[in-house]
Amino acid sequence: MSAISSTTTVAPRKKRLSPRKRAQRFRIVQYAVLVLAVVLAALTIDGHQLQQVFFRPDLIVQTIGPELGSAFLNTIIYTTGAFILGLVLGTVLALMKLSQVGPYRWLATIYTEFFRGIPAIIVLLAFSLMGVAFPGFSFPFDPYGAVWVALGMVSAAYMSETIRAGIQAVPKGQIEAARSLGMSPGMSMQRIVLPQAFRIVTPPLTNELVLLTKDSSLVYVIGLFASGYELTKFGRNLANSFANITPLVVAGLCYLVITLPLTYLVRRMETKQRKATR
Amino acid sequence: MTVSEVMPTGNREDEIQIYDLHKSFGDLEVLTGITTTIHRGEVVCIIGPSGSGKSTLLRCVNLLEQPTKGRIFILNEEITDPDADVDRLRTQMGMVFQSFNLFPHLTALQNCSIAQVRVLKKDPEEAKRIAQENLEKVGLGDRGHSYPAQMSGGQQQRVAIARALSMDPEMMLFDEPTSALDPELVGDVLSVMRDLADGGMTMMVVTHEMAFAREVADRVMFMDGGVIVEEGPPGEVIRNPKEERTRTFLARVLDPTHVHPTTTKYDHPDPQKTAGFEVRGLSHHGE
Ligand SMILES: Nc1ncnc2c1ncn2[C@@H]1O[C@H](COP(=O)(O)OP(=O)(O)OP(=O)(O)O)[C@@H](O)[C@H]1O
Ligand SMILES: [Mg+2]
Q1: pTM: predicted TM-score of the whole model, two decimal places
Q2: Do A182 and B115 touch (CB under 8 A)?
Q3: Cβ burial A28-61 (10 Å sphere, 16+ → b, else e)
């Protein structure tokens, strides 16, 4: 053992560059590759054609209008409704997972695994066909109801895991203090634990809201009247009729208007929490 | 007489009656038969080595731990009865924890009023008034709108005492209330507790503060290995222990060079203050 290690240390080494020098050379290579790629792109890509396909000004003007506004609003409505439903159901599932009663825990686990394991689009399609499968049945607030329930049920599966972790992150002493003041288990949970748990999980839940905003685009697969169009469906229809991608680009930018501020908010909350826990 | 035949004395002076209390965690027997009565206005200090079951005893009294065997009567009502209204009995016993356990999402005032409103169904304005009174009592009348994170450990512990007092309890349980505090903050909390004792509050105090026990306690209870080894007035138990185990323990904690494990976590304990406190304790020892 010692013989081996001594030979390796004693063995004559090739002359190596210092780590600093090596890092410097690697950086130079990276810049060179970048410059090469930019030059190649400038030579091969026709800027005018690019603009005509993705950013045609006249189509941008035609896309922006009251219908885009309604699609934007619908995206928000689909998302918000699904989020609220998911939050409520997710909280219930989280409490079930922490229950003393075995069957509640099993049910919640089966639910979570099921809805996290299948594509959201299948759930959405299934719920949109409920009216056909059960004649006479329809979700309230058509067409919003079916989407809220479908996307809400899927996001509840994800949120329940987050919320459960949040509840468990609240120190045990908090419940003990609450109980020692005579609060019942339910009241301790509602007044003491949950408010703290939700504070802990606000950043991850806001991330979930961002994901849900994008997932609301799945609505385009179900049959809808024009009044129910959201950004993706709206952009796709226009893109089809103009045979041009510009409307989809506009729709994409609209998503960024929603998601970028939210992601920024999450980052701020996370830094604040990190500071608070330091 | 077997435990099941035990009846509460019915004497309203006997506020906490404990009969043959046992508590096990799995195979580990932590309490092995505790019997004692704590009277109205009595201050009982519980001392003993780490792991002797002091916290467990205190937590059994308000049923934060479910006893394995034995019976406990609070104000002559059995709290260990499966049908007992435990939540109501707990409002009669304020509990103060080593780690404060203030509600971090509520202000000091809200910490002191939430249970009054939610449990005692007090009018919010009335609850706030009582909360303010108790904050003043612990010297924090001007900090009502601060959140726990904005206060020092000593202030937080005093808010925790005010929170317990706001329920207007018959008795108070303290579990090492000063063990998590920087040495210079210990005095404020102890002086609040001394005021409470002087005011006639019934108190069970688990503590390592021997000077406090000696000055304030009516009775000192030395626990080791899950039993009460020795109990009596502080003058007897601390100054003149009969049992060898008590003597060994006291020799260790009263040694001025000894630093108790719970105080070693501070990076820079102020040697002068710590020493001063011990010396003050020892001077009483020799009087
Ligand atoms: N919830 C629990 N589960 C398992 N064991 C426990 C639990 N609570 C306490 N114990 C054990 O019971 C014994 C007594 O604990 P307890 O906290 O009552 O001691 P203590 O006298 O308060 O000690 P300290 O001075 O360190 O606070 C210890 O050995 C401890 O590890
Ligand atoms: Mg303890």
Answers
A1: 0.82
A2: yes
A3: eeeeeeeeeeeeeeeeeeeeeeeeeeeebeebee
Q: Which residues of A touch B104 (CB under 8 A)?
A: 196
b vs e for A65-91, b when ≥16 Cβ sit within 10 Å of the residue's Cβ? eeebebbbebbebbbbbbbebbbebbb
Q: Is B101 in Cβ contact with A171 (below 8 Å)?
A: yes
Put simply, the answer to whether B115 touches A181 (Cβ < 8 Å) is yes
Run means of pLDDT, 10 residues per run, chain A, 278 residues: 47 72 92 94 85 87 89 94 96 96 96 96 91 83 90 96 96 97 96 94 93 93 84 91 91 94 90 71
CA–CA dist B117, B122 (Å, integer): 5
| Substitution target from A174, A180, A184 for chain B, most B beta carbons within 10 A | A180
Measured from the CB, is residue B54 less than 6 Å from ligand 1?
A: yes
Instruction: Write down the H helix ranges in chain A.
Output: 2-10, 19-44, 47-54, 57-63, 66-97, 102-117, 120-128, 130-133, 144-169, 172-180, 185-187, 194-215, 231-242, 246-277
Let me know: does B94 contact B164? Beta carbons within 8 Å. yes
Q: Give the whole-angstrom CA distance, residue B80 versus residue A131.
A: 56
> CA nearest A155: which of A219, A207, A192, A195?
A207
DSSP-derived letter for residue B80 is S
pLDDT in tens, A160-218: 999 999 999 999 999 999 999 999 999 999 999 999 999 999 999 999 999 999 999 99
Locate B193 and state its tokens.
């507790």
Global ipTM: 0.86
Provide the mean pLDDT of chain B: 88
Burial of B3 (0-12, 13-18, 19+ CB in 10 A): middle
* Torsion sign over Cα B177, B178, B181, B185: positive
